[in-house]
User: Fold this.
Amino acid sequence: MDTSVTNVVAEFDEDVFVPVERLSAGLVVDSDLFADNQKLISKGTVLSQSIISNLTSRGIEQLKVRRGSSLARLGIMPESAEDRFAALLVDTGRIYEKHDLSMVIPQEKLESASHQIETFFCDLELGQSVDLTKMRGTVDGLIREFTKNPNGAVKLLDLEHFDRYTYRHSINVGLLFLLNVADWVDDEDELAEMVYGAVMHDIGKSRVDLSILNKPGPLDREEWEIMKMHPVWSSELLEDTAISDTGMRIARAHHEKLDGSGYPDGRNASQIDKFVRLSTICDVYDAITTKRSYKNKMNFAKAIEIIIQGCGPQFDPKIANMFIRKVGQYPIGTFVRLSDGRVGVVTSVNEAAITRPVVSIVLDQQLKETDSPEELDLSELPGIRIVGVVAGRTEETTDRPRANS
Assistant:
């Protein structure tokens, strides 16, 4: 069978042949692709594993495409390290599997939970009745998944659109809280209530106008006073749901600070229990590492630095230390660049040396994918250190008063 593919959109000067085995889920096809005069893939298609498998099963070994297209970039050697990294990150799932990594909660479960919360919030905004038992069921499902793989990769949901921040942030905070609090609480029902409070902590934002939530510039005084009411509204919306006292405190007090400068009640350290203190750190950590309409995002390591700097007046040092040792300065599943030029994926956090995790080598010094994983415990290799993060939230953020709103 003739396996060549022609581009029907435009003539091109130079063909680039891309082996099907180099394709990966998530790539977007930017030109129609044909074989034997039959269109196989339409322009704009997002490649899935089933599409790639279908090409293989039909005996199609390579595609011919225009140089410069999304597919063609895989067929030629990337021109820069950034291109190589981008190509690597397209196929995170395959890399994780190759390096014996799995997510603490599967991505599709997190996405499903985010969509459920979005529906829930939208119903509230429209004044419709809501079924809180469904949200409790969602939280219970997340906990069940977590118990299957508590030491998996912690991959937080990233943003697609700014107006979806609250929903994805809610899931991220719940996941971070669960990751840290699971060792503290033996009672499964109480654990579920706490995680429920962490997931629903921002439900009061359903009463805040989107023009305020997504405003690209600083909030004025009136807008800021409205924003500061969202924890109060969260507690009001949850008060009739038979949520536990701890869950309710998490929802109302997650913006309180130990020095009394937080909101909405200006509580001091004696009035803030350890579970609320943990929820505050989880909330700030995700807010810092997420791009918003009014700020860029920071990488994980920088977020940890900010939390450390805030210990005392804002954050409990003991709780922060526990959080940092559990999550790590480089969380499991993070792609990192090493001082010897190689790229690896973090497979384990060394709680006694958070800057020196266990890393499985993904790309060699020529930035070519390794045939077989090599695992390095950086705590035992003083000559090798992490010099940067390849994946994740790497941009610097602006210093704005809304950074943890």
